[in-house]
Amino acid sequence: ITMKRAREKITTMGQQLNLNQHCIDMAVNFYGMALARRLTNGRKSSHVVAACIYITCRMEGTAPFNLNIPSVDPCLYVMRYANRMNFGDKTHEVSRTALRLVQRMKRDWIHTGRRPSGLCGAALLIAARIHGFNRTVLDVIKEVKVHENTVRKRMQEFGETASSSLTLEEFMQVDLEEEHDPPAFLKSRKKDRSDKVEEEATEEMVKLEEEINRQIALSLAKKRGPWAKY
């Protein structure tokens, strides 16, 4: 879909929602950003248009999308899940460690946009192993009801933070002041680096191809000399 067509769709939808021209222009700009970053690939244009309008309405506080729904604190679910996992008289200790892990995940932005059950599952699995319980990912997902890849991903994200390098004693007693960058931001930076490496490799290949063609041209020119017939 072209920008012209996108503007038409956004304008039509914006008028149906009684949005002013400023909001419509902002939504068009968001669509342009999505198009430039290839976020529209493989997605229905109507979905991308709707998302751009929604973002605009949220940022501008425009009705009917000015809904400030508070995020759910994952800490509220830790004890509930811990009681289902048969930790016996160590339930309180495991829960305390898991709560500490969830709180640290929140400070490192891992909880943003994620279901609380996934964070609780990862935290409880780490806490269980810390306290000597041989729990697997499958044991945890039976209780928290998420896919095993979700738990593994949360554990991987936590493993990339500074807190993961601390000992248990340090982790329970020391509050690191630094905050880790959000996973989505790190993923974007990684993709940018990958794109840059790919671009540099392409440039090298082009230069190499040009050099090969030049050498071939020189070789052919020599053959066309006075001794070419021999």
Automatic annotation (TrEMBL):
<keyword id="KW-0479">Metal-binding</keyword>
<keyword id="KW-0805">Transcription regulation</keyword>
<dbReference type="GO" id="GO:0017025">
    <property type="term" value="F:TBP-class protein binding"/>
</dbReference>
<dbReference type="InterPro" id="IPR013763">
    <property type="entry name" value="Cyclin-like_dom"/>
</dbReference>
<dbReference type="GO" id="GO:0000995">
    <property type="term" value="F:RNA polymerase III general transcription initiation factor activity"/>
</dbReference>
<feature type="region of interest" description="Disordered">
    <location>
        <begin position="182"/>
        <end position="203"/>
    </location>
</feature>
<dbReference type="GO" id="GO:0000126">
    <property type="term" value="C:transcription factor TFIIIB complex"/>
</dbReference>
<dbReference type="GO" id="GO:0097550">
    <property type="term" value="C:transcription preinitiation complex"/>
</dbReference>
<protein>
    <submittedName>
        <fullName>Transcription factor IIIB 90 kDa subunit</fullName>
    </submittedName>
</protein>
<dbReference type="Pfam" id="PF00382">
    <property type="entry name" value="TFIIB"/>
</dbReference>
<dbReference type="InterPro" id="IPR036915">
    <property type="entry name" value="Cyclin-like_sf"/>
</dbReference>
<keyword id="KW-0862">Zinc</keyword>
<dbReference type="GO" id="GO:0001006">
    <property type="term" value="F:RNA polymerase III type 3 promoter sequence-specific DNA binding"/>
</dbReference>
<dbReference type="GO" id="GO:0005634">
    <property type="term" value="C:nucleus"/>
</dbReference>
<dbReference type="GO" id="GO:0070897">
    <property type="term" value="P:transcription preinitiation complex assembly"/>
</dbReference>
<comment type="similarity">
    <text>Belongs to the TFIIB family.</text>
</comment>
<dbReference type="GO" id="GO:0008270">
    <property type="term" value="F:zinc ion binding"/>
</dbReference>
<keyword id="KW-0804">Transcription</keyword>
<feature type="domain" description="Cyclin-like">
    <location>
        <begin position="8"/>
        <end position="75"/>
    </location>
</feature>
<dbReference type="InterPro" id="IPR013150">
    <property type="entry name" value="TFIIB_cyclin"/>
</dbReference>
<keyword id="KW-0863">Zinc-finger</keyword>
<feature type="domain" description="Cyclin-like">
    <location>
        <begin position="76"/>
        <end position="160"/>
    </location>
</feature>
<keyword id="KW-0539">Nucleus</keyword>
<dbReference type="InterPro" id="IPR000812">
    <property type="entry name" value="TFIIB"/>
</dbReference>
